[in-house]
Design a protein that fits this description.
alpha+beta; D-amino Acid Aminotransferase, Chain A, domain 1; D-amino Acid Aminotransferase, Chain A, domain 2; 2 domains; 8 helices; globular
């Protein structure tokens, strides 16, 4: 069950879902190129965590005036979500400069509980996004073949490691832990909304935090790792390439931040 809308100042206009598209990515690739952001809803589709940040990032690289003002976008999105027959939704907004704003909706299907209990397997790839601070739909086309490989091989995520240093995931941000200190790359990464929330929670909990991209050669020396995204929250990483992370189970600091994030979203999610 999917839905596609063009968001306008007078409300959402329903459009046909692209033929044969079985995912948000596939449907997005059928639209004109532009900028996008993806998030999930809370509280029966009435709230979103970090919505202001999502919209600020979406509008940051658009010419003036944008196709749709933020207030009109919110109002049209509220109407589209109210009509969407799912308890919660995964939402993708696509802004095509000078042309239109689209909303793509699918029912929210969170990862199964064992993903959070047991952690996931990842691989490193020598790939980078040309403009890391921007979420552009042309990268969805570039990553399609790699995502098909991940599905075929049962790998949860690819970690982008240009020049031998892990900076972020294919559809996530990346964190790692060594000696009780939390690390994440500072440059060459998307300023993820969930990433910012995790860094804020770490500071509140007095967890030492440093900015450093992880050299692939140092993977065997780290204690913990996890990825973050708005739809999935924090997902523990227990294997990178051929190497188990730590003892091969989600680590204590990762579990601590997962619990803090789960509590945080229910108080910090903002109304649409």
């Amino acid at each position: 069950m999917f839905a596609l809308y063009r968001l306008t100042p007078t409300g959402p206009q329903a459009l046909p879902w692209p033929p044969a598209a079985t995912s948000l990515d596939a449907a997005t690739r059928a639209l004109p190129e532009g900028f996008y952001t993806t998030f999930r809803t809370y509280d029966h589709k009435r709230r979103v965590l970090g919505l202001r940040r999502h919209l600020r990032r979406l509008y940051a690289h658009l010419p003036t005036p944008p196709p749709l003002a933020p207030a009109a976008l919110r109002a049209a999105l509220r109407q589209a979500l109210a009509a969407f027959p799912a308890a919660e939704a995964r939402v993708r907004l696509v802004m095509v400069p000078g042309r239109a704003c689209y909303a793509l909706l699918e029912p929210l299907h969170p990862p199964p509980p064992e993903v959070y209990r047991q952690g996931v397997t990842t691989i490193t790839v020598d790939l980078r996004r040309p403009r890391p601070h921007e979420k552009r739909t042309d990268f969805l086309r570039a990553r399609a073949a790699l995502q098909a490989r991940l599905r075929a091989e049962g790998i949860y995520e690819a970690l982008l490691a240009p020049w031998g240093r892990i900076r972020e995931g294919l559809s996530s941000n990346f964190f790692w832990v060594r000696g009780g200190t939390l690390f994440t790359a500072k440059w060459g990464v998307l300023p993820g909304v969930t990433r910012a929330a995790v860094l804020r929670l770490a500071r509140r909990a007095a967890i030492p935090t440093r900015y450093r991209a992880l050299p692939v050669a140092e993977v065997p020396t780290i204690d913990e790792a996890f990825i973050t995204s708005s739809s999935r929250g924090l997902v523990p990483v227990v294997r990178i390439d051929a190497h188990p992370v730590g003892d091969g189970t989600p680590g204590a600091l990762t579990r601590r931040l997962m619990a803090a994030y789960a509590a945080y979203v229910h108080t910090a999610a903002e109304p649409l």
